[in-house]
Design brief:
This protein is α+β, with helices and mostly antiparallel strands. It is built from nine helices and seven strands. The model has no long low-confidence stretch (mean pLDDT 92).
């Protein structure tokens, strides 16, 4: 992996990133969260409705252990299993509990083995799609398709001090809440609209993939190997 330009949105100018103030209940737990999309980072900076800053870095990843979540059904289930570890889910059915237990058991990844994870970001809209999958409302191919609706919605999460130390601060720029807070809301609206228009119309009849719901995954004891051989 060559050097990458990545961005971090914050209420502060962050010349020296640190894991010290990171929360354990983010998508992948404690880490320094970045993106290759500067506008997305500006939206993060204004997430509370106040103006912030876009911080620009160069990441020098040589020697780092990097987990990149693949764009596939296996990748989707791995991503969900990671969210299960770190995000808070309100479990409202036995189906959801069984699904969470199965994914945590069979698709679990120990992030302690990695310095960086590159994966879709679970913002409000994507988290609602994950809940719909775990509740049995949508099938696995639909959730995988949803993750492809916005190719820019990727985050680079630096998990270790080794990774943070490979960041070279380049510059900062203001992020105005009057511009980027509405853009954040509009991004969420457009994504949910796309989901209805492009994903929910996908059906088992026009899909070439196995049409697994979470109940099928649990009852048929589906593993990553099963998805590979199909």
């Amino acid at each position: 992996m060559t050097s990458e330009t990545i961005y971090h949105g914050s209420s502060l100018i962050v010349e020296k990133p640190s894991l010290e103030f990171s929360s354990n209940v983010n998508d992948f737990g404690r880490g320094f969260y970045c993106t290759q999309n500067p506008d997305l980072a500006r939206e993060w900076a204004c997430g509370c409705g106040k103006s912030g800053y876009l911080n620009k870095y160069t990441l020098h990843p040589a020697g780092l252990d990097i987990l990149t979540i693949p764009d596939s059904d296996i990748g989707t289930l791995t991503w969900v299993a990671l969210l299960i570890q770190y995000r808070k889910f309100r479990i409202n059915s036995q189906l959801m509990k069984d699904g969470i237990d199965w994914l945590d058991d069979r698709f679990h990844v120990n992030l302690a083995n990695y310095d960086v994870v590159v994966a879709p970001r679970s913002d409000e809209s994507y988290f609602s799609f994950v809940r719909a999958f775990l509740s049995g409302e949508i099938a696995l191919p639909q959730l995988t398709a949803a993750l492809k609706l916005d190719a820019t919605n990727k985050e680079y999460v630096l998990l270790s001090e080794s990774a943070v130390n490979r960041l070279e601060f380049e510059s900062f720029a203001p992020a105005a809440s009057s511009v980027f807070y509405p853009k954040r809301k509009n991004r969420d609206y457009k994504l949910r609209k796309k989901f209805v228009e492009k994903v929910l119309i996908k059906t088992k009849d026009n899909s070439k993939k196995p049409w697994y719901y979470i109940s099928d995954i649990v009852e048929q004891e589906v593993t990553a190997r099963d998805l590979l051989v199909r």
